[in-house]
Structures are given as structure tokens and as C-alpha cells.
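Help! Submission page says 'invalid entity' but I think these are all valid:
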Amino acid sequence: MILHYIYEPFIDILIKPTIPKPNLKPGVTSKMADEVKLYEDGRSPYVSRVKLALHLKGVKYESVVEDLSNKSADLLKYNPVYKKVPVLVHNGNPISESLVIIEYIDNMWKGVPILPCDPYEKADARFWAKFIADTVNLIR
Ligand SMILES: N[C@@H](CCC(=O)N[C@@H](CS)C(=O)NCC(=O)O)C(=O)O
């Protein structure tokens, strides 16, 4: 909570203005023509799980392969905080961090549910997803 008060003004002044504003319109749903782009590097495990989620939901997407030694201006614009892949851009709105992206995909598109509905089971699934993410990071 204290950290929140320390960092919030910093985030407001330095980071938020560089993040593209959400392209949200009331009533716009996933049934409208979706433009889905996935910024990836072709081999990242973080990207792979986002791709898996997109495939599970049957979402068609355009792949934008990044050279991580020479990141594109778009990647830096869409993920100014971490400057990493994956980034999902849905109808112009960028979403970063694989677990956040997967939750967004689960909420946005119907079909096979990825996270359980029950709040406890959902928290448990999130715990293990984070554990695996942290462990994968250590192994690499
Ligand atoms: N916590 C991030 C990790 C993403 C990540 O580490 N991506 C790597 C590729 S595996 C990356 O973009 N690295 C570029 C860099 O560190 O500059 C997630 O879950 O999406």
C-alpha cells in the first residue's frame, strides 16, 4: 500500500503518457471485426503459452516476429515498461505480460474457459501459473 503511494505519481507522470490510450468504445465486443496482433520472438515460453490460449479460444491473429537484439519502435511503444514479448494488441489496445494477456484472452473470447470460475480455484490456478512462470525464468 505504501509502495502504491510512492510509485503512483511516478507512473502517472513518466509512464502512462507513453502508453497508447485504450481504443475503447461502448458496445464494442469481440463479435465485431477483431484485429489481433501478437508481438513475439518465435521461441519464448511466455509467447508459447499466449499462443496456446489463442488456439484454445480459436482466435485468429497476426504474428509480428521481433528481433530482440533490435526491438521495433512498435514493441517499445506498446510495452514501454518491460520492453519484452509477448505483447498482444487487440483492436489497437496493447496488453503486456503473458499471465495478464492470458486472463484478458479468457475474459474477451468465449469458448473453452482457461481459468476456473470458482474464486478459490481461480486463485489456486493463478498461484501455480505464477509459480511455473517464476520457475521457468530461473531455469533459463
Ligand atoms: N514476465 C514476462 C516475461 C517475458 C520475457 O521475459 N520475454 C523475453 C523473451 S523470453 C523478452 O522479451 N526478452 C527481451 C529482453 O529482456 O530485452 C511475461 O510473462 O510475459
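Support: the input was valid. A stray whitespace character was the problem, and the output above is from the cleaned input. Residues 119-139 form the longest helix (21 residues).
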